[in-house]
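Morning. Coffee machine broken again, so started the prediction first thing and wrote up yesterday's gels while waiting. Chain of 87 residues, entered below exactly as on the submission form.
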Amino acid sequence: MYVISEYSRKQAKKLGVDIELSTRKNKKLDVFKDGKLIASIGDTRYNDYHSYLKEKGKSYADERRRLYHLRHTGKTLGETLSKTLLW
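Came back before lunch.
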């Protein structure tokens, strides 16, 4: 089961959004703005920065973050939120 990291909570506060564990199958987080669901982000079948950090250490997690940022440009709301909240 996915656990929301403290980093994600801090980033959500900076963005002015609220986050909760997702109610959608295979999603990590539901993101709310003014009480309305704006996106469901993150796939529970894949790791994120904080998962890698716990499992494999900082240098491995940093490399995975770098590669994630190369692949994802943040052109959609979901990508932008994922990059900010999970990576």
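The first helix runs from residue 6 to 15. Going to sketch it on the whiteboard this afternoon.
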